[in-house]
Hints:
Elements: H1 13-21, E1 29-32, E2 47-51, E3 56-60, H2 85-92
Parallel strand pairs: 1-2
Antiparallel strand pairs: 2-3
Amino acid sequence: MTRSLKKGPYIDEKLMKKVAKVKPSDGVVIKTWARASTIIPEMIGYSFGVHNGKEHIVVRIEEDMVGHKLGEFSPTTKFIKHGGKLQKEIDKK
Length: 93
């Protein structure tokens, strides 16, 4: 379910203060734990270190990411592989 249009998108205030202090051309990675923050057009060109529970994953914001959440680009689980007989046959090849 999406957020009400009346309320507007959720953007962490501390994160926006950090963005205001840095220029996109500096190449500084802005560390954040605010995975629920919506990406807005003012963030384009910045690099964020989005925390996934263990480490910060560097995410460079581009135009087509606007409207998504920061957490969508920093997966919290690591997929290893499916098991079973079919997987063993594929691995042998």
